[in-house]
Amino acid sequence: MRVLAFAASNSSQSINRRLANHAADVFEAEFAPGAEIDRLDINDFEMPIYSIDREQADGVPALANAFIARIAAADRVIVSFAEHNGHYCAAFKNLFDWASRLEKKVYQDKPMVLLSTSPGPGGAGSVLKAAVESAPFFGCDLRASLSVPRFGDSVDPETDVLIDDALSQALRAALGKLV
């Protein structure tokens, strides 16, 4: 089984990357031993800001095809969304917009768990809600979602393992739905 895990964030210090990686590690260790984990970094897919004019003049960048191919190669997908002013990180939104020009069902009906976290009590819940609500329109076989509030208080800073028992169990319950 191949699992694609990534943060919808372009921060080099992304707590959402840390959460996505932890979730992928838990999934492999507890639900799919031997699974191949593909850890995608959206910084590897930086493209010009999407516009219809740019698309008509230059076509869709090859990096959008590469992103779609990584999703296609996965059997399961784990995404953790960063929240910027209540919505998607601009870098992810741009990548998603370009990818959707190639394949409206960007997620290609892959079983997915959607996550989010933030330093504050909201746990990036606004962006997670937007992602969950739009998921069916973009080919997401949404199995579960989970918001992790107060990342700094919920995760061991040395290991990135959830130390909040309720959140740890909720993550495992969500990941179990990918089996």
Question: What does this molecule look like?
Answer:
The chain has 179 residues and is of the alpha/beta class. It has a single domain, classed as Flavodoxin domain (Rossmann fold). Helix content is 41%, strand content 20%. It is built from seven helices and five strands. It has helices at residues 15-30, 52-58, 62-73, 90-102, 125-134, 151-154, 165-176; strands at residues 2-8, 36-40, 76-81, 110-117, 140-148. Helix 3 packs across helix 4. The termini are close together. The mean pLDDT is 97.
List the helices and strands and how they pair.
Layout: E1 2-8, H1 15-30, E2 36-40, H2 52-58, H3 62-73, E3 76-81, H4 90-102, E4 110-117, H5 125-134, E5 140-148, H6 151-154, H7 165-176
Parallel strand pairs: 1-2, 1-3, 3-4, 4-5
Helix pairs in contact: 3-4
